[in-house]
Amino acid sequence: MNIYSISQETYILFITICGGILIGFMYDLYRIFRGLFNPKKIATMIQDLIFWVFIFIVAFYVLVFSNEGAVRYYNFLGFIIGASFYRISLSASVIQGMLFLLGSVKNFILDICRLIKYPFSVTLCLITGPYNCCKKQLKPLYYKAKRMGSLPKNIIKDTGKTIGIYFRKK
Domain segments of the chain: what residues? Predict the structure, then answer.
């Protein structure tokens, strides 16, 4: 059993408060992640498990780093004070900043994709533009030629019908 001085106990409390702030920050990251992807029930349960494993690792590391893994009531108090302080004072600003950062990254990636895609769309327009223009101009001629091409077939068919009608009436 280790006996710590008041300064050591204060240091341990301060470190656990910092750990609580870190846990609050991790919770905000988790909230942003869940808000962006809107997972289903099974995925939510798996994400919750992963989140709590990370929280356990952070708390364990803070306890081992600060006071060699000894658990005391003020360690929990430090975590609660740190997480509450973060939630009250920093959480809204951090979430707003992270959403702005994610939106900026998303817009940057979309701009890069548009920039890469632009030469291909211009090339496609240069190729399809004359084709579409010619198609529009030649469409009426195409249908007239199609009708004219089917004209002999229609004449033969109609002539056969007419001859059949005359021979049956006799």
Answer: 6-124
